[in-house]
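User: Fold this; tokens only.

Assistant: Input:
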Amino acid sequence: MIKSAIIISIIIMSSLLCGNGHAEIYKWIDDAGNIHFSDKPAADDESEKIDIKIAPASPTSPSAIPNSSDTPPVNAPNHNGTFNKKIVMYGTAWCPYCKKARNYFKKKGLAFTEYDVEKLPSRMREFKKLGGTGYPLIMIGNKQKMHGFSIEGFEKRYSSM
């Protein structure tokens, strides 16, 4: 009897923990053009309410893969059997040079990790710490740094590694 009560309690508690989460986030831009996010609206009522729904992780979701966004693939084989060097791009969704780099990497079958610095404040801090001033900032391996993007410039840096 006690054993079945414990099992039922565990099942009930598990089902409560597996529900969808919900949070309210407010976004606003200050006079200096800085973007802010908070759980409370700005004092001047110029905030945009952003609803975020957090779903439980599924086996195929990126959050279920340990450190998938923090550990870019190193020496991952591409489509022609050669190996890629680690590529990390700090950029934005609207940047045309970021789009050009993204398309080039995909076309060449190069594994890369992209961080949208406008969506992730921690990545914006990394971007600035690395000396980023314009988009994209591309890191190739641990030593090569590329400001902006051109196919010729990238291939020169990538092949010298």
